């Protein structure tokens, strides 16, 4: 019997399910501040841990975040950092672990999602309905805040303005490119301009260090042959086996908000004939798929080119470089899992 294929799956996700799914991914179900182990060689990690604990304490305390507008016009003195905490650093330094720990420590109602998932939620619900639903929450945690799409950045910063005005606490993370570390900036200058006065509502915590996913580990395993891939599909019950080109075509037919449901309950993803993505649209869909696979800790094995070759040199020099580097980091870790 042929192995099941992802391309044969057509998952559906309702808007209510999208809201209910705003929780940390399975990989971070059980994390806490106590399970975050700061590197003694990176003092910023211990400092960020302390800042996150203090912020979680404010979220769990009485009352909601103080409104920006009440601070301006209500006569009260606005407390810096009351509404938001922003974790800024490179790949694989534990920012998501800390963000999920904040979420776990916060009282309900609360929501958690990546920047991309949040834009998908707003698109599905409509802006006004998204504001209405999320304004009822005590905390919104946003992982991987992205700066490379001005339209999405403006959409989310407008959303954050509405939510913080309603008293919602916001915690966020973003990746700083390796060659930009140490600049001490709030994400990027463009982000500062876009969020304008809202940026003053965030405390910023730097989290430095090497990518833990590759610390002291060998390079990603070499691709398998097609025959070896087929053998793995036979050995691993429930494993899916797709050709790279067919999978890319299938992703184009699905809204990215459905990619998580696409790979739910799959123990191993096998992809044959991997090669460089045909264009930027294909590459960005692969980034979202990589994130959903990583969220669920699903091993990946391939034939053809190495996983890192999915993004060509021009892509890695372009405006979406940060996304592609994150995807390579995550896919490399997942491919090691498949090679155990």
UniProtKB/TrEMBL annotation:
Q: Name a single GO biological process.
A: cell division
InterPro entries on file: ATPase_AFG1-like (IPR005654), P-loop_NTPase (IPR027417)
Keyword ATP-binding part of the UniProt annotation: yes
Q: Which UniProt keywords apply?
A: ATP-binding, Cell cycle, Cell division, Nucleotide-binding
User: Is Cell cycle set as a keyword in this record?
Assistant: yes
One Pfam family linked to the record: AFG1_ATPase
Q: What is this protein called?
A: Cell division protein ZapE
Q: What is the lineage of its organism?
A: Bacteria, Bacillati, Actinomycetota, Actinomycetes, Pseudonocardiales
